[in-house]
Amino acid sequence: MCSTANYVLPLRRTCEVGPSTKRKTSVQSQASNRIMNVFFFLSIISNHLLSQYKVAATPGRLCGGVSMQTNFPGVRSHGAPQDTEMDVAWQELMAITELQEFEVPSESSYETSQYQTMEPMVPVGEYGISQPHPEPPPPPPPPSACEMSTADNYDGCYSEEVPTCHRLGSNTEAMYGNSESQLSQRMLPISHAQPSLMALREPMNISGTSQGHRRANACLSQGLSRHMLWTTHGQSARARSADDMESDSGLSLGSSPPLASPDNPAGGAPGYQSIDIGMAYSDGEHDSMNEHARRAHIHYSMDYQNQAHSYLHSGAHPSYFSPQPSLCHAQQSSLTLRSVKQQGPAAALSDLYNDSAMSSRGSSQHNMYTKPQGSISTPAPLSRDERRAMALKIPFPMEKIINLPVDDFNELLTQYTLTDTQLALVRDIRRRGKNKVAAQNCRKRKLESIIHLERELNQLQAQREHLAQERLEFQRSLAFIKCRLTDLYAEVFSHLRDEDGQPYSIDEYSLQQTPDGKIYLVPHNAKERAMLKNWE
DNA sequence: TGCGATTGTCATCTT
DNA sequence: AAAAGATGACAATCG
Questions:
Q1: Minimum CA–C1' distance nucleotide for A251
Q2: Chain B nucleotides reached by a protein CB under 7 Å
Q3: Distance (Å, rounded) from C-alpha A262 to C-alpha A389?
Q4: Terminal CA-to-CA distance of chain A, rounded, Å?
Q5: Would you give per-residue pLDDT tens digits along chain A (536 residues)?
Q6: Buried b (16+ CB within 10 A) or exposed e, A480-503
């Protein structure tokens, strides 16, 4: 209340306004404590309004393009904090005309600014909820500019409005804190997901560098998607498990030199083409039909120098090179597709991981992937590279060809005397095997990227909806405050009388405050304004 | 039989 | 310069 008195003082001593005695007005001393209280309450509301708008909007927007600081420079800057608040309140009151024209910023700018600096607004029902007034209503105030359910609750109960407004303030602060935490919570997932997302995005960048891929791989291998490297790990595992490799297709186009026919092991290039294209490699049915016979041929007739056991090591697991027959791919393929269609890419990726884990478990799982039709424990069909390797009597398993480090691989090659054809095939097998793994990784990264983008999209949509809701609440709060200020402004006018005791019309006059703290009743009429200026 | 999904492979580029 | 990885494009395969 002290601040109220300080605030009203200049109002009392700035009585003389206007050139004529009629217009030379004095704000009557009947601008009573009621008015003082009105101003005090106005200050609370205005401060609340300003505290929000100064964050959410620019001063220009707030005052309809009129800067309050510009209009009233240095207004009682020496005063107590309450004084400053009063000044701000008064300035806000003075700007009420502009407030009426206040337009909420456009959506784009609003969203942008809101996203950056927005503080949550007071809920619409804040006033009504926080202003219970058991006291009987005071004498009827001037006609309200807006019919709020709580519009007259404060009238005559200003002493209680203070705590009410304090409650409002505290509520607001609580809301700020809460909402800030909520906002941060809302933001966290995005910012949290960003690195991983970016790490996943980088491989998606067509023009991206392999460094990006490596970074993504590093990130993934460190925890985000540890099993993203399942293939690599699986391959590593396969390096120790000769019966755990997969390859079910692969017609070498051009890069592979002519190979010997499986049916003609001793043959070289001449026998390759007819067998490779005509019989062994172009007719899948034929392949499957002759698979057992060929495997039997492999198991019982092939003699690969001194390393035959390396690919014939497992009679119980009749896998020469490939541990993962095509049926495994078929199952995985259909499973992934089904998951994508029914549960989305995440489930598909999960299925991929599961299947990958299964595929890398070793030979114990191997029989699960053999074709159910046909004889019991039907061995898996050989891949074409496997068949070629058999045809050329490559003396070491494909898993070694593919997974050994280059030095070990070269050392392995030096241990055997291989023809040029064999060497070329081995290198082709190695290249294709590595590329197959790379393609699998690449596709998994793509799928993961899609999943993350989907999540990000959902989060952004949720944020957009939330911001729209906050904007709506903001607009409602703003309309409510404007209404309240208009009412209070009108009430202030209702207590002002000229020397004849006639009330001033709010349509003809407005209140203005000078830098020195004086408050004037200023006529809207330009002529009277000029007279007033001359009189001054 | 046509279609979509999956997978392997090739070519090419980057690291 | 070679090796390896990444990826777009294409074809084979499958349901």
A1: B9
A2: 5-11, 13-15
A3: 9
A4: 33
A5: 333 333 222 332 233 333 333 333 334 444 445 454 555 555 555 555 545 444 333 333 333 323 333 333 333 333 344 445 445 545 554 454 444 444 444 333 333 333 333 333 333 333 333 333 333 333 334 434 443 333 333 333 333 333 333 333 333 333 333 333 333 333 333 333 333 333 333 333 333 333 333 333 333 333 333 333 333 333 333 333 333 333 333 333 333 333 333 333 333 333 333 333 333 333 333 333 333 333 333 332 233 333 333 333 333 333 333 333 333 333 333 334 344 444 455 555 554 444 433 333 333 233 322 333 333 345 566 777 888 888 888 888 888 888 888 888 888 888 888 888 888 889 889 989 999 999 999 998 888 888 888 888 999 999 999 999 999 999 999 999 999 988 888 888 888 888 888 888 888 888 888 888 888 888 888 777 777 777 66
A6: bbbbbbbbbbbbbbbbbbbeeeee
Which nt has its C1' nearest the CA of A214? Answer: C5
Rounded, the Å distance between the CA of A12 and C1' of C7 is 81
Report helix, strand and coil shares of chain A as percent, to nearest 5.
65, 5, 35
Distance of CA A342 to the CA centre of its chain: 24
* Residue A246 DSSP code: B
Phi/psi-derived region of residue A436, left when phi > 0, alpha when psi is between -120 and 50, beta in every other case: alpha
Distance of C1' in C13 from CA in A330, Å: 9
- A208 beta carbon to strand C: under 7 Å: yes
**Neighbour tally for A90: CB within 10 Å:** 26
> If DSSP codes are grouped into helix, strand and coil, which group holds residue A331?
helix
Structure tokens given for A308: 């035959």
Q: Which residue's structure tokens are 């708008």?
A: A53
The domain segmentation of chain A, as residue ranges, is 2-185+461-535, 225-418
Residue position matching structure tokens 């299947």: A355
d(CA A383, CA A230): 22
Q: Position of tokens 């009426």?
A: A100
Q: State the nearest residue by CA to the C1' of C6.
A: A210
Collapsed DSSP state (helix, strand, coil) of residue A510:
strand
- Structure tokens given for A205: 């960048």
C1' of C8 to CA of A328 (Å): 26
* Tokens found for residue A374: 């046909």
Count, residues in chain A = 536
A334 touches strand C (CB under 7 A): yes
Among A58, A89, A56, A57, CA closest to A72: A89
**One-letter amino acid identity for A144?**
S
Residue whose tokens read 């490596």: A214
User: Quick one: which of A501, A497, A414, A486 has its CA closest to A49?
Assistant: A486
Q: From the alpha carbon of A338, which nucleotide's C1' atom is closest?
A: B5
